[in-house]
Structure formats: structure tokens, C-alpha cells
Design brief:
115 residues, alpha+beta, Glutaredoxin, 4-stranded mixed sheet, 7 helices
Length: 115
């Protein structure tokens, strides 16, 4: 089964859920704000995807951070920020076993079908 991590109000996450249903792919949805994400799981995503790819620097949550939080970013600091404010993560994140897929474009759809 595919785990879909995102935000319930995210349009892309909603599109991904509809697509998974249309493709008859079993999934469970976890809202990163209300359900959270464990430090171990997030660390695994960072290992697979890279923290630079996972950190959303274009969203509202990023823009509202203090400049001191944005300064001197490294993997440890980015991981801490994403644990404190899960909306800082790009989404959706799909997890199936050790496979982690970020985003929802054609390449990601093809990868999900191949699982």
C-alpha cells in the first residue's frame, strides 16, 4: 500500500488522491499537520531525496519564518524546521516500503504505477 503524505487543503494532494483512486492503487492519506510525521521517517526522506529537494522555500510557511531560522541552513537545521512545521515540506510525498517519491507530475505518476 502507498502512503500519501500531504495537506488536506493542498490542491495537488487532492489531485493525487483522485488519481490514485482512478488508477485503483491502494493508498492511505496522512495529513502532515494533523497526523504528523516521525523524525525517523522524515530523516529517511531526507536521505533519499535530499533536504534541499524536500524543503519548500516558496510557500507561506517559509516566508513567515524568522530570518535567523532561514540563515545558515544545513541538513540538521532543515530537518528540525520541517519537524516543527511540517508544511515546510514539499508535497505530496508518496512512500511504498523504501521507495520515496516527491511531487505529482508524469514522472511520479509513472513511478507510482510501477510499484
Amino acid at each position: 500500500m502507498i502512503k500519501l503524505f500531504g495537506l488536506k487543503n493542498c490542491d495537488t494532494c487532492r489531485k493525487a488522491k483522485k488519481w490514485l483512486e482512478a488508477e485503483n492503487l491502494a493508498y492511505s492519506f496522512l495529513d502532515v499537520r494533523s497526523d504528523g510525521v516521525s523524525e525517523d521517517e522524515l530523516a529517511h526522506w531526507v536521505d533519499v531525496l535530499g533536504w534541499e529537494n524536500l524543503l519548500n522555500r516558496r510557500g507561506t510557511t517559509w516566508r513567515t519564518l524568522d530570518e535567523t531560522d532561514k540563515a545558515d541552513l544545513d541538513q540538521a537545521k532543515a530537518l528540525k524546521l520541517m519537524l516543527q512545521a511540517p508544511a515546510l515540506m514539499k508535497r505530496p510525498v508518496f512512500v511504498a516500503g523504501d521507495i520515496v517519491i516527491l511531487g505529482f507530475k508524469q514522472d511520479q505518476m509513472d513511478a507510482l504505477k510501477a510499484i
